[in-house]
Write a structure and sequence with these properties.
298 residues, alpha/beta, TIM Barrel, eight-stranded parallel β-sheet, 8 strands
């Protein structure tokens, strides 16, 4: 199952209508665009999809619409990030019933969780479904930092855990995952500015929302690495790096949605308490998009 996931794994934003409701028709359009542009997998309900700000019914709607639109054409990875194990299990079951190929689990923290508590959280989810699980390590949003040693320990204890998304921006953690697992636990890059280094280090894929704005460049970078053309890969990465840095300098839902609007597709604003980009930031983003999209590619 893990072999299904490689390359550019795209994270759709969740579009909202002016009244604040999820715009399901526009969500289907966004997913279709990503598939048409050639991404290798679709991952709804990640951090970029504002999953933490959706009600239960909204979360289910986004999962269903996304999976129905994909219709099995590429693999799907549904994000689950919940404070309670009970709700995380419910959502994992829903994702499986709805046709997801795997789930990505981000442990969330209010009380600081011990490793024993994190292990039981993943274990309960794994026991409830037959899908592969991607461990998502992103302490910036979850409040929990999973060490490479503990991730490998969990993978050894829970057969469903078959892959890791590493988003700390620390390339040494990726090398450590390889060493500790004897290269048996695939890892995926979740830090946009680290894309080239991670792919060169052996990442099986790049989890990113950037294909909403620069699909050709993200796909070309992965293709260059896959064929061993490191010179082209470096050039492609350098071309998109200023934009990638900008996208993660603020909240990704805000930067990606602003970029889509600049490109002619208004997907609404982020859900409060997140705010849209300020005017100066939008102007900066517009300049970066123009610069990146008008440069010749290899």
């Amino acid at each position: 199952m893990t072999a299904k996931f490689h390359g550019i794994i795209a994270y759709p934003v969740t579009p909202f209508k002016p009244n604040g409701e999820v715009d399901t028709a526009l969500l289907a359009v966004l997913v279709e665009q990503l598939i048409e542009r050639g991404v290798h997998a679709i991952a709804p309900l990640g951090s970029t999809g504002e999953s933490a700000y959706l009600s239960e019914s909204e979360w289910q709607t986004v999962a269903e619409v996304s999976l129905q639109q994909v219709a099995g054409r590429v693999p799907t990875l549904v994000g689950i990030s919940e404070l309670t194990t009970q709700v995380a299990v419910q959502r994992a079951k829903f994702a499986e019933r709805s046709g997801a190929d795997a789930v990505m689990v981000l442990p969330m923290s209010y009380w600081k969780l011990s490793e024993r508590e994190i292990l039981q959280h993943y274990g309960a989810i794994a026991a409830a479904i037959s899908l592969p699980i991607m461990v998502y390590n992103n302490p910036a949003t979850s409040g929990i930092d999973l060490s490479s040693e503990f991730i490998v320990q969990m993978a050894n204890a829970i057969p469903n855990i078959t892959m890791v998304k590493e988003s700390t921006g620390d390339i040494q953690r990726m090398h450590r995952l390889q060493t500790l697992s004897n290269c048996t636990l695939p890892f995926y890059n979740g830090s946009n500015p680290l894309a080239l280094a991670a792919l060169k280090a052996g990442a099986s894929g790049w989890c990113t929302a950037a294909p909403h704005l620069i699909p050709d460049l993200t796909l070309a970078l992965y293709q260059a690495i896959s064929t061993g053309d490191l010179a082209s890969a470096q050039q492609l990465f350098d071309q998109q790096l200023p934009l990638l840095r900008f996208l993660v300098s603020g909240h990704l839902p805000a930067t990606i949605k602003a970029g889509l609007k600049l490109l002619g597709l208004d997907v609404g604003v982020p859900r409060l308490p997140l705010l849209p980009l300020e005017k100066a930031a939008v102007q900066n983003l517009e300049a970066l998009l123009h610069q990146v999209r008008t440069q010749p590619t290899t």
